[in-house]
Amino acid sequence: MTDTASSQLPMALRARGWTAAMAGTIGLVFGPSTILLFLFGSFVAPLEQAFGWSRPAIFFAATIVSLMIMAVSPIQGFLIDRYGTRPIVLVSTVTFAAGLAAMSLMGGDIRFYYLMYGLLPILAIGLWPVSYLRVVSTWFDRRLGLAIGIVNGGIGLGAALLPILVAYMVANGGLSSAFLGLAAIVACITLPLNAWLLHEAPRTDQGRSRSANALTLAELRPVLKDRNFLLLAGAFLLLGFVNTGLVTNQISLLIDGGATPAHAAVVQSVFGVAVLVGRFLTGVLLDYLAAKKIMSLVCAGGAIACGLYAAGATGGMAFVCAILIGAIYGAEFDVLSYVVKRLFGLAIFGRVYGVIFSVFQLGAALGATLLPLSRAHFGGYGPGLIAYAVALLLSAALFLCLAPTTTTKLEDVKMSR
Question: For the domain that residue 156 is a member of, what is the CATH number?
């Protein structure tokens, strides 16, 4: 449903698009993207102290998470395109909360730790960002960028606030208390809000919708061979290679470079704020500027940040690096959501997004342990950071090769009829 069509609806119904966006924002604050990825670094030191596990052993769980997300993302896309978003999200909210509660039973057996980090992405299958982004995409067209920015801002908000909350829970109750607290938040905040506010826009032309779905589903295989799809997949493979490694290692990188844990936590919080601002700002800019230019610019900035970290950036310069890296996180999935709808249409939005997100996680699995390995084998993070910088520059080049995103292929087909 476009903004033009929705403007003819009663005010209460029009407002549901924005309330659905708000539900998506809160859902991502306490969703698996934040808890399993952005919070991962917050658990490294407590796990090391509690069980004596090595850092490479702890960080292997991040690789497991990336591999599992890679597997479940296309399935998530199929499920929400086939059955609708709402039922998948509600069931996943319950199972994800249960999985987090089960983490409180973790003892010193690292096999249980790996098992749970393998199961949690499955239990949260409906809570990865594409579900919420598909909902808002049914409500908005002209203001799509702004709506996407508001929803994706939830990950930045979570990245800014949850490390502080988790640090408090760990300090006052231990690891078990932290996981139980997160489970309670998901069950008591995310679930009621999703049940109350998360609804897709009503369809005004069911027959036309079915025809469009039949057309685009038949064309799904050629879409996967499309030049723009391949460029997007390549760019996000490289982004995944870099981003998970940076977000999970940033605190360790700073502390090893001489920063105090308190200073490193502040830098991480600034990073989270940069993600939050970047998500909203990117969403606004997407309605006015070319998506590919926005993304190539932030990739170049991230490459500069990696170079500065490799050179030993500390003090105030660490905040500059955190902001530049946060800008990548702030832009990447706003851009992906916007470009997928514009280039491939809404009917196969979940599947196209899910496949590219899966490719992103393949890159994450390949790059997640690069920095710890660089530290172990070369005595520092520099070589790994330089590899990240090169990957970001290549990603920027691929984005610049994308076609303009002024209209969707699905819309072009309809107009030709």
Answer: 1.20.1250.20
The pTM is what? 0.73
Number of folded domains that form the chain:
1
Amino acid at 306: C
Span 95-138, pLDDT tens digits: 999 999 999 998 888 999 999 999 999 999 999 988 998 898 88
CA dist., res. 61 & res. 368, Å (int) = 9
Instruction: Answer yes or no: is 2 within a domain.
Output: no
Distance CA 118, CA 110 (A): 12
Task: Give phi and psi for 243, each to the nearest 5.
Answer: -70, -45
Question: Which of 237, 254, 277 lies closest to 359, judged by CA?
Answer: 237
Expressed as residue numbers, the domain containing 275 is 7-416
